[in-house]
Write a structure and sequence with these properties.
The protein is of the alpha+beta class. The protein has a single domain, classed as Orthogonal Bundle (Arc Repressor Mutant, subunit A). It has four helices and five strands, in the order αβββααββα. Strand 1 and strand 2 form a beta hairpin. It is globular, with a radius of gyration of 14 Å.
């Protein structure tokens, strides 16, 4: 199923595709936090939250909470990370095709 993306959604998807890293069992893996996406794309955080929510509703990306604190003796530091939906089973070309990105 192809989805129509807004200009800001397209910016986030292309940025995320460019940040994919090699991963066992798939062509690429991406887990980006909201702050990182905002800083790198220059999309203000208040707009970015809506863009990411829309990408979740369109089943392009999804989020999960992750403890970013590497020190096990400290209080957890929860951050929201973003992944492509089904990225373990989906290759980059399939994501581009679904999102109609050249």
């Amino acid at each position: 199923m192809k989805v129509q993306l807004t200009e800001l959604e397209n910016t986030v998807v292309v940025y995320s595709l460019n940040r994919l890293e090699p991963w066992i069992g798939s062509e690429g893996y991406s887990d980006l936090d909201t702050k990182e996406i905002s800083e790198d794309t220059k999309i203000p955080m208040n707009k970015l939250r809506g863009v990411l929510s829309s990408l979740e509703q369109k089943e392009v990306m999804y989020s999960y909470e992750h403890d970013a604190n590497d020190d096990w003796d400290r209080k957890p530091k929860w951050v929201k990370l973003w992944l492509f939906a089904d990225q373990e089973e989906t290759d980059i070309e399939s994501i581009k095709l679904k999102c109609q990105i050249a």
